[in-house]
Design a protein that fits this description.
By secondary structure, the protein is α+β, with helices and mostly antiparallel strands. It has one domain (4-78): Arc Repressor Mutant, subunit A. It contains five helices and three strands, in the order E-E-E-H-H-H-H-H. Strands 1-2-3 form a three-stranded antiparallel β-sheet. A hairpin with a 4-residue loop joins strand 2 and strand 3 (23-24). The longest helix has 9 residues, at 25-33. It starts with a strand and ends in a 7-residue tail after the last helix.
């Protein structure tokens, strides 16, 4: 399912990356600009935690200049209970 947030004042469309925490691609980019280097940093920037973990690969894709493999490789270590199903 793809959800889109439309800003009615600026004609800008943002896609939700994390549905559980209602984080849009714009918010992820803002966290990256604010110093987020790894996907846990994005959640920390907004003082939230991953719930289902399905958004982590998309967050990793938006982390400019980061090693995507090392970001994604830590998913199973940090979220084992989520990934068991």
């Amino acid at each position: 399912m793809i959800m889109i947030l439309i800003n009615r004042f600026s004609d800008t469309i943002y896609m939700y990356i994390c549905h559980c925490n209602a984080l849009t691609e714009k918010q992820v980019d803002t966290a990256v600009s604010g110093g987020a280097k790894l996907w846990p940093d994005v959640y920390a920037f907004y003082d939230c935690e991953p719930q289902c973990g399905k958004c982590i690969p998309q967050i990793c894709e938006r982390l400019n200049g980061s090693d995507k493999a090392s970001n994604i490789g830590n998913i199973k270590v940090l979220l084992p209970e989520i990934l068991e199903y």
